[in-house]
Amino acid sequence: MTTDTRLLDPGFDLTLRPMRYPQFYEMYRDAIRNTWTVEEVDFSLDVNDLKHKLGPAERHLIERLVAFFATGDSIVANNLVLNLYQHINAPEARMYLSRQLYEEALHVQFYLTLLDTYLPDPVARAKAFDAVQNIPSIRAKAEFCFKWIDSIQDIRRIETTEQRRQFLLNLICFACCIEGLFFFAAFAYVYYLRSRGLLHGLASGTNWVFRDESCHMAFAFEVIRTARSEQPELFDDELQRQVVLMLEEAVECEMQFAQDVLSGGVAGLSPKDMRQYLQYCADQRLAQLGMPRHFGATNPFAFMDLQDVQEVTNFFERRVSAYQVGVQGEVAFDAAF
Questions:
Q1: Strand, coil or helix: what is 223?
Q2: What separation in angstroms does the CA of 159 have from each of 230, 240, 243, 327?
């Protein structure tokens, strides 16, 4: 394999030296340093909150939220294995993807523990685990994800410019819509509850997941930036038009979930504000792609100003939400939200 191989050229380059993309190797090293375990999360106060501090509307919100969490990261992991790993032709990038796959499994474990703790009733728990089948608002999100995952499932080698564009649209959906919109909307619900002093364990674990997801997005955007720098013609007007349409569809899809989650009437959260927040997040993703903002929305949630995943103790948390291994680098608020 020659050193002038491009990132999306077909094949499996096995040579780490000379390293063509050291930025991906550094991301892998940072991820190793950012290690945490589910056993560190203390849910003891959450159980009391669920029983004595949350009303029916908030409990419905939580039940829907953990039902989405139960399947969301599994969808992400499947895309990593089935589509992304085989087409990103740099061993240092595949090292990062291997680490990301571990982190997605860790998130699944976190949400499994969350479900077992929050939903002691076996029937309710089984329904949550099968949310893709029996909760329409979650099924709609899953179908949106599968549409883009399946779009390149039959491609074994990326040979043509059009196939490269298909791959980039998959990756853009993965970074901007699934991790960058669906999950960040879910995080907003968590941090709203935290702003009311509720569910410390959920907020603490979500801080760690938030940091992981921010790093996953940073990697995906770097892959996109690198591919674009190597082949600028990939980002033609049609691809950019498709990206805007994709984000518009994702916002509408997530709004179905918001209408469901907030159907009981949750004080301090409204579907109108959630739409504005989703549009704000979508504009942030477009900016990360080097594209013009489309919606022109601002962040409507003052409680999101409390969000800080650096090594600090939140007012409502009982312990520092830092990783157990030394962390380097920063997650910028504006880049994430």
A1: helix
A2: 15, 21, 22, 39
Q: What is the pLDDT of residues 125-156, one digit of tens each?
A: 888 878 888 899 999 999 998 888 777 777 88
In Å, how far are 54, 90, 131 from 63, measured between CA atoms?
12, 41, 10
Whose CA is closest to 188, among 210, 166, 170?
Answer: 210
Q: Are 298 and 94 in contact (CB under 8 A)?
A: no
Q: What is the DSSP letter of 200?
A: H
Neighbouring CB atoms inside 10 A of 174's CB total 23
Q: What is the pLDDT of residues 1-55, one digit of tens each?
A: 445 779 998 888 888 888 999 999 999 999 999 899 999 999 999 999 999 999 9
Structural tokens at position 59: 């409990």
How far is the CA of 19 from the CAs of 26, 44, 215, in angstroms? 11, 47, 21
Distance CA 253, CA 243 (A): 15
**Nearest one of 103, 105, 100 to 171, comparing CA atoms:** 100
* HSE, side-chain direction, 13 A CA sphere, residue 35: 8
Domain-by-domain residue ranges, the chain? 41-336
φ, ψ for residue 333, nearest 5 deg: -60, -50
CB 225 within 8 A of CB 24: no
- Whether residue 235 contacts residue 16, with contact meaning beta carbons closer than 8 Å, is answered with no
Catalytic residues: 111
CA dihedral in degrees (329, 334, 336, 337; nearest 10)?
160
CATH of segment(s) 41-336: 1.10.620.20
